[in-house]
Amino acid sequence: MNDATGMPQRVLVVGGSSDIARQILLLLARRRLVHVVLCGRDLAAMEEVAGELRRVGVSRAECLSLDLTEPGGLGELAEEATERLGEVDLALFSAGELGSAELEELDAARVSQMVASNFSGQAAIALELAKGLLRQGSGRLVFISSVAGVRVRRANFVYGAAKAGLDSFAIGLSEALRGTGVGVMIVRPGFVRTKMTAGLPAAPFSVGPQEVAAAVLAGLEEGREVVWVPAPLRLVFGLLRLLPQALWRRLPG
Ligand SMILES: NC(=O)c1ccc[n+]([C@@H]2O[C@H](COP(=O)([O-])OP(=O)(O)OC[C@H]3O[C@@H](n4cnc5c(N)ncnc54)[C@H](OP(=O)(O)O)[C@@H]3O)[C@@H](O)[C@H]2O)c1
Fold first, then answer.
1. Which of 65, 129, 154, 251 is most buried, judging by how many CB atoms fall within 10 Å of its CB?
2. What is the pLDDT of residues 35-84, one digit of tens each?
3. Three-class SS string for the chain?
4. What is the CATH number of domain 10-248?
């Protein structure tokens, strides 16, 4: 159940070792977070986050093994995580990998993996969870999308295309759930300084994961459907979407 300010008490995270998710959870822990289930591949990294959450007062923080590129177990994972939490107030989708955009480094298997990690695996779990939230009659799904999916660039086109898919899926799911008591929030950050972008030159409007977390909490409190981080990116990408492709491809970064 959400507390009186609408802050979630029971949270499921897909991409449990994500730097952005960690900051969101630390902020939620200062509110009324009671129970977290982290789902992901890196159990050691997730155990570290779970330990940190317990140290700051979260009663239960546990980890479940999940590889989004293995479609077989995704429905079962949603079921298992829901059973552990009892009731899911918030499902946070924070998995992603930048991967490569170099043709010589890509092949059919690699593209399929990138699409599964960034889009299809998360959409599959979200669909199962959304049905559970509908039965519950409450809850929220929060998708960490990206401006990379708003207009796809050559420099990260497989990642960007998959993010565009996830973003569109979230918009459609939001429409399908409208009026049911279950909500969807889409978060569109620009460049965030996390392990995903380590070693890359920071793009304009870059932020830290703490700023994304603060924007997510504000979005939850305000009942927002879409959150851009930082906020000016909404206007910037509103304009960039209109640029002819010949100009778009010349932009640096
Ligand atoms: N950093 C940015 O500039 C930026 C900008 C916009 C949006 N985002 C989005 O924000 C979200 C969080 O990213 P972050 O910056 O926090 O990066 P991060 O720390 O690298 O987190 C990404 C997480 O996704 C997990 N993951 C990747 N592939 C997976 C798979 N096949 N199965 C299960 N888990 C998988 C990673 O786990 P492993 O350790 O097992 O790989 C990691 O926990 C992502 O959706 C990303 O696309 C990031």
1. 129
2. 999 999 999 999 999 999 999 999 999 999 999 999 899 999 999 999 99
3. CCCCCCCCCEEEEECCCCHHHHHHHHHHHCCCCCEEEEEECCHHHHHHHHHHHHHCCCCEEEEEECCCCCHHHHHHHHHHHHHHHCCCCEEEECCCCCCCCCHHHCCHHHHHHHHHHHHHHHHHHHHHHHHHHHHHCCEEEEEECCHHHCCCCHHHHHHHHHHHHHHHHHHHHHHHHCCCCEEEEEEEECCECCHHHCCCCCCCCCECHHHHHHHHHHHHHHCCCEEEECCCHHHHHHHHCCCCHHHHCCCCC
4. 3.40.50.720
